[in-house]
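General statements about sequence and structure are easier to judge against a single worked case. For one protein, we set the task of working out the structure tokens from the amino acid sequence alone. This step matters because it turns folding into a mapping between discrete strings. The amino acid sequence and the backbone structure tokens for this protein are reproduced below.
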Amino acid sequence: MKKYLFLLILMAVCTGLFAQGSNLYVKSINDWHAKRENELKQPNGWLNLEGLFWLHKGVNTFGKAAANDCKYQHREFADYLGAFLFNGDSVEWVNKNNNHVNIDNNEIKGEQPITVYKQHGIAKIMDWSHFSWSVIQREDKVGIRFRNLKAATLTAFKGIQRFPVDSNWRLKAVLVQPAQNLLMITNVLGQTTAQKSAGRLLFNIDNKEYTLDVIDEGGPNLFIVFADETAGKTTYGAGRFIDIPKPDANGNTEIDFNKAYNPPCAFTAFATCPLPPAQNRLKVSITAGEKNYGHH
């Protein structure tokens, strides 16, 4: 009888510990997702983008008037705010009519050209009223990424729908060293670039092995662009992103699909997202992580 009672107590304790562990895991995923949604709403997040203007060499006028090269039509924007001077490897800003444009939080006076970007350097942040913009470069294309810090896409944001958190989608994985050090990735502009390969990730779903090629961007985690059979149905059609921990000395790591997240292009038409390479299009439905958002 005592032995039977002991087993009951042991089972109850184990069940309680399992439930506690499960609840802690769900909370960790929910906390991670709440942080992600908060980052999307920040001034440098993806919800406030309202323009992407590619520059041509020479003078690129900027404002809401129809004659401008970079035209942003908003009733609160200036007809002609100024101009970008693009010479191929740098961009200068020329103020117009003392419009009180700020560059890296410093108000600009006069109409003398000021360098705001040099090729492969860090772009300066420019702002006027509640609008902000900076130069971006994508291979040979140089443009202006434009933000409205009061954009309707930001103020109307109510969160991202997700699949229920399921610990079965937290999978052990092994990272195998790459045969080649480069992984070719194409973006939505049709540009293909070589990214540093971290290797090929091996993992099992329902006793079947799958693989994903992994990118090393130099940060604390490794990066994967993938798609699965939910793409274009319940998840974003062009695939999703996921980060994984760097492996130990034996290549052991994990992939937690509960942390699969949408690329910026799911929220805005003014982003330049990478697309999954053919080998990263999984022939299985990953019913975990973020679902599709909006209509992008």
Observations:
- DSSP finds two helices and 18 strands in the chain.
